[in-house]
Design goal:
Layout lengths: L1 H11 L3 H26 L6 H7 L6 H12 L8 H7 L4 H26 L4 H4 L7 H28 L3 H31 L1 E6 L5 E6 L6 H9 L1 H9 L5 H24 L4
Antiparallel strand pairs: 1-2
Length: about 270
């Protein structure tokens, strides 16, 4: 399996798609750190300043990885690489896991570039105490598991969908839908738990404002708030992490990998 991973990485560093993704991560990481600096200049303090820089790259990583994986790993059927690997005697499990490992390494490289891009603004952050070590470790570990979950979903579809054009559309739309669903769930959760003012319009066209007292979110909303990737990414940026969030990401990775392997073993590859 090591030779397969090395082959992936060798081709990856020569791929225009991956190089473009690396280039995109530079302004993305710089923008996150500039946002933190803007908050500092406006008088904001707190651990979220560090979270924006250290965990912020995970926010849009799903869409970026969807593009990279679909256009790079998804090409293996079209160019005959998949058939060549099988003909060379590589097992399907090794092929699948090598692709997953290479995609995770690619995700970590993209993440590292975003962090390096934020270094020019580091002088602003060091003025404030870093988050507690336990919180920092939880959030960084959670972000790593979040990336692993994204990679496992992308690789599962890359191994099962042979048409690259279809794969790219499906993966990008899936990640976009997950992101927007996360934003809706986060809004519903915060409305339920924080309370606030809500405007409604009556049948007569009159505006009414209703104040909601803080309360508890429903069980489904609370679970989705912990499980959906976008919700997790925002919470890690706020240095807010719970073991249940990490468990959800690990479970997603394990389930999609197991399902992908089971279906890939039975897939008819021509």
């Amino acid at each position: 399996m090591g030779s397969l991973i090395r082959a992936h990485l060798t081709r990856l560093w020569k791929s225009p798609v991956f190089l473009l993704a690396l280039a995109v991560m530079v302004p993305y990481g710089l923008g996150l750190s500039n946002s933190a600096v803007g908050d500092i200049q406006s008088g904001t303090t707190g651990p979220g300043l560090w979270g924006q820089v250290l965990c912020g790259p995970g926010l849009l990583m799903g869409i970026i990885l969807a593009a990279v994986c679909s256009l790079f790993f998804g090409a293996e059927y079209a160019d005959g690489t998949m058939r060549n690997k099988l003909a060379a005697g590589h097992g399907r499990v090794s092929i699948y896991l090598a692709t997953l490992a290479a995609s995770l390494l690619a995700a970590l490289a993209l993440y590292a570039v975003a962090l390096l891009a934020s270094l020019p603004n580091l002088r602003w952050l060091v003025r404030f105490p870093a988050p507690e070590m336990k919180t920092l470790v939880l959030c960084l570990t959670g972000t790593a598991l979040l990336l692993a979950g994204y990679c496992s979903v992308c690789v599962m579809l890359c191994m099962l969908v042979q048409r690259r054009s279809v794969l790219a559309v499906v993966l990008i739309l899936l990640m976009a839908c997950l992101f927007f669903a996360s934003m809706q769930v986060q809004d519903a959760y915060e409305t339920a738990t924080n309370g606030g003012m809500q405007m409604t319009v009556t049948a007569a066209g009159e505006q009414q404002f209703v104040f909601h007292e803080p309360g508890q979110a429903g069980a489904v909303t609370a679970f989705l708030y912990d499980a959906l990737p976008g919700c997790q990414a925002y919470r890690y940026m706020d240095m807010d992490a719970a073991p249940r969030m990490l468990t959800c990401s690990a479970a997603l990775t394990a389930l999609t990998t197991a399902l992908g392997l089971a279906l890939f073993k039975r897939k008819d590859i021509r």
